Amino acid sequence: MGFDNQTSQGPSFKSNASFLCEAFLVAALRAISTRIFSSIRRSVRDKALSFTMNIDETSIYDRSSFIVFVDKLREQLITGDATFINVDLVDFLDALNRYAEDIQGYYDNTGQLVNADVPSWKVFADLLKGASMYE
Asked: Which of 11, 19, 35, 99 has the most CB atoms in a 10 Å sphere around its CB?
């Protein structure tokens, strides 16, 4: 009756320990890879949001500048000048909903001192811009 072999009474202590160790390692690797891929995905998305739109959303400070922004966003959708992933209304609204939940992370990751819980024309513009390409 060694610790390495299966006995008539069931698996040995060593095989149980090996199984638990292997299960722990697999779970740890999954958790780490999920975090890494989430971070990479978020970074790529934030960079895409920052560079693919040729609209200066930092200049949005009132209703008039927001209207100009929305007009430029619409124009880019029509002409194909920007990367729009969510071109139909259902996908756009779904992305808008999810991006509204995640936008504070975008501000934090890009070093912007914006509180997404405080409504502003800039936050509204960022939400629209983000929803056009949020996956």
From this structure: 99
Would 2 be classed as within a structural domain? Answer: no
Q: Band of the pLDDT at 47, cuts 50, 70, 90?
A: very low
Whether the predicted model's global pTM rises above the 0.85 cut: no
Domain assignment present for residue 56? The answer is yes
Q: In this structure, is residue 76 part of a structural domain? A: yes
d(CA 67, CA 48): 23
Domain span at residue 111?
Answer: 13-131
Q: How far apart are the first and last CA of the chain?
A: 56
Q: pLDDT (tens digit, 9 = 90+) per residue, 80-111?
A: 877 889 989 999 999 999 999 999 999 999 99
